[in-house]
Design goal:
The protein contains 14 helices and 21 strands. It is of the alpha+beta class. Strands 14-11-13-12-18-19-16-21 form an eight-stranded antiparallel β-sheet. Strands 5, 6, 7, 8, 9 and 10 form a six-stranded antiparallel β-sheet that branches. A hairpin with a 7-residue loop joins strand 8 and strand 9. The two termini are about 20 Å apart.
Amino acid sequence: MTSMILPWDKITADLSNLEIIIDPIQLTKLSLDYYHFSPILYEKLKDKRGNLVVRPTNEDEIIQIAQTCLNYKIPLTVRGAGTGNYGQCIPLEGGIILDTTKMSQIPWIEPGLACVEPGVKMAAFDKKAREIGWELRMAPSTYRIATIGGFIGGGSMGMGSITYGQLRDRGNVQALRIVTLEEEPCIIELRGDEVQKVNHAYGTNGIITQLELPLAPAYPWAEIIVVFDEFMTAARFGQALGDSDGMVKKLITVHAAPICPYLTGLNDYLPLGKHCALLMVSEYDLDAFHELVSEYQGEITYLKTAQEASKGTSLLEFTWNHTTLHARSVDPTLTYLQTFYFTLEKVEHFYHYFGDEVMIHLEFIKVNGKTIPAGLQLIKFTTEERLNEIIKYHEEQGAGIANPHTYILEDGGRKIIDFAQLNFKKQVDPYGLMNPGKMAAWGKE
């Protein structure tokens, strides 16, 4: 599957009724994502480019693109806003990049459920949904610019995961419509558990054209910073807030003190040497929240009502992988990990064992009905060998690593072959044209 020998002039002519981008600067921009967070991925992916970008506006145009790819056996990579971190949307073998950002219609929103096209931006959707008192269940720190289709294809969790868990948890995606790359492309609708065939599959086995998502009741989210003298006190506070069923919350982030100076936009609220919690809590629960802060001897340095927070930069912008973004803007030698600690005892062990080499950043999430601490630690990168040693030690101590230094679907979080996704790819992409090279199991049976 070598794109160099394809007749690109003829292919471009076949798609001339669509918006096509071939400008080298734009092509480079639309071939890449935030893979450079990983020095390992940077070396492997920095030179990868598509041959052209096509921006469809509807399902019929997607079918036309799919048929063109089949006619010429062209690799096809689907892209949203490109805010991923693992090279999910970077084409390894050139070909066509299908940019979904022009597919941004919202066919309907009802109480508790909505139907959207994949290019709808998450923040724009929430603005509309809140008109009837609802919002997305979860969203990444790239919420302002990320697309819903891109999040389903390449994301996994974010703000809201303290209540609703991970995207792959049953019920978080109701239905998907996809276009296939069979000999004659067709539309397939997946419902219920069938959505897992495509959910978080990096676009390797279907072009998402429409999604139905269950929604969450929209609360007025107060945004709050609480600081602590001791890291483990901050961590225990985060766990206690997560376990407090009577308080509605959307975000519980805890940063160890060495991370705080990297969050330059919050310097006025983060005293030097203090550890901090960045939070989104329902305004209706602030009385109970203040009692919890007092119990753990925290100090509130920042509190904005939902209305006040809507006028500035949200605290979300300093959490999840935006923490990594801010830190790397100060020190580009930093990288990161993604870890399921499961217990505070493990958090405390790793905090003392690694010291400042691994700066702990916690995000509390719901897993199987229980609040657990997960981590997006900042790593002072020295060598790939040392990074692998750090990963290995975490795993030996019982932590789960979702490795952000690989673009291979199976090698990231789950560490297993998903036979439902593999078998579905055999059905809908028999030539292996969709995002080739990302699904390790493909072609190895």
